[in-house]
Amino acid sequence: MVAVSSNQKLMVDAILIKKELSSVDRSFAISEFKAFLMRDSIAKKYLNSKKINPRSKEFKRIVSAVRSKLRRAHSMFGVGNRSLDYLRFADELSELASLTHLKNVSKKILIAHASSSERVEDYQVFYKWIISKIPKLQTVLDLGAGLHPFSLVYLTKSKLQGMSYTAVDINNSEKELLELLFSKLALFYDGFEGNSKILNLTNSKDIKLLGSLKSVDLALMLKLTDHLDRGNGHKQTEKVLNAVAASFVLISFPTVTRSGKPMRYPQRKWVELLCKRLEYTVEKFETSNELFYLVQK
Ligand SMILES: C[S@@+](CC[C@H](N)C(=O)[O-])C[C@H]1O[C@@H](n2cnc3c(N)ncnc32)[C@H](O)[C@@H]1O
Asked: Domain limits of the chain?
C-alpha cells in the first residue's frame, strides 16, 4: 500500500465515501489523488497545512476534482442509474436459458456502458476486420476491458468454440457481470473459457504479473492508453505494450468527444512513432467514431 499522511487519508476516505466509487481500488484512488496534487499546487499547499476541514471550500473542491478523475478512469455504466442497471442485468443474466436471450441482454449491457455504447453500431465491422487480420483468433487478453467482453456475442460459433478470453481491469465492480457472461458462453459454446483479473496497469508489480501471463493471439487496449498515460507522455503505455505477451495488440482511441463532436486532433501519430522505435509493425483502421492501431509484435 502507498504511504499516506493522516491528512491525505482523511481526504481519500472522503473521496471514496460515495457509493458509486466504493469498488474503486484504494491504491488506485491514492495514486490518482497524488497525481492531482502534483498538478495542483494550491491543493498541495492546502494538504500540507495543518488546517484541513472537510467543510471548507478547498477540501470540497479537491474531493470533487479527484472523484471526477476516478469516475472518468473507471467509466462505469455511464448511462442511467448504475446500481439499478447492474442488479437488473445480473438477474437477467443468471436466469437466462437461451442463446438468443444472452445476445439480447449482452447488447443492452453494451449500450449501458459509455465506451461500448459508442461502438455498438460498429461491432460487426470491428470483428470482421479483426478476423481478416487474425484468422486463427483463439486467445484474447482484454486490458482495461470494462464491459467490452459482452461484444463476444457478435462472434460466430466457430470462433467462440474453444476460445480463451481473459478480461483485466482495475475495477472489480464489473467482475460479477463478466463472470456471469463467461459462464453462459461456456454453456453455449464448447470449450469456451473466460476469466477476469484485477490488475492496475500503472503499477509496476502488476505489469510484471501481466508479463508472466501466457502468450495470446490478441491483446486489446481499447480506449485505455489515455487512462494509463494521464497526459504524462506515453511511458506507461510503452511499458504495458512491451510487457504483454501477444502476437498482436489492438490500441484504440475515440475520434469524437463525449458530446459527439469530432475531435480536433483525432490521429495519434505517437503510436506510429512508438511502434517504429520498438520495431513493431502497425496498421490503422477507423470506424465512425474510433481509431484503431493494430500492432504486430
Ligand atoms: C474508457 S474505459 C474502456 C473500456 C473498454 N476497453 C472499451 O473500450 O469498451 C477504460 C477502462 O480502463 C480501465 N482502467 C483505467 N485505468 C486502469 C488501470 N490503471 N489499470 C487497469 N484498467 C484501468 C477502467 O476501469 C475502464 O474499464
From this structure: 6-74, 82-296
Nearest ligand 1 atom to the CA of 174 is 27
Find the distance separating the first CA and the last CA of the chain, reported in whole Å: 33
How many CB atoms are located within 10 Å of the residue 277 CB? 9
Helix/strand/coil (H, E, C) string of 155-215? CCHHHHCCCEEEEEECCHHHHHHHHHHHHHHHHHCCCCEEEEEECCCCCHHHHHHHHCCCC
- Output the nine-digit C-alpha cell for 131: 478476423
Q: What global pTM score does this model have?
A: 0.79
Residue 239, pLDDT > 80, answer yes
Instruction: Name the more confident of 115 and 40.
Output: 40
Residue 220 sits at φ, ψ, to 5 deg, of -105, 135
74 lines ligand 1 (CB under 6 A): yes
Q: Which residues of 243-252 are buried (b: 16+ CB within 10 A; e: fewer)?
A: bbebbbbbbb
Cβ–ligand 1 distance for 201 under 6 Å, the answer yes
Which comes out higher in pLDDT, residue 116 or 157?
157
Q: Report the pLDDT value the prediction gives residue 116, as an integer from 0 to 100.
A: 83
Nearest ligand 1 atom to alpha carbon 252: 8
Ligand 1: distance of its center to the CA of 144 in Å?
3
C-alpha cell of 267? 490521429
DSSP 75: -
CB 148 within 8 A of CB 118: no
Q: State the pLDDT at residue 258.
A: 66
The one-character DSSP state at 152 is: G
Check pocket membership of 151 for ligand 1, CB cut-off 6 A: no
2 pLDDT band, cuts 50/70/90, is low
CATH superfamily of 82-296: Vaccinia Virus protein VP39 (3.40.50.150)
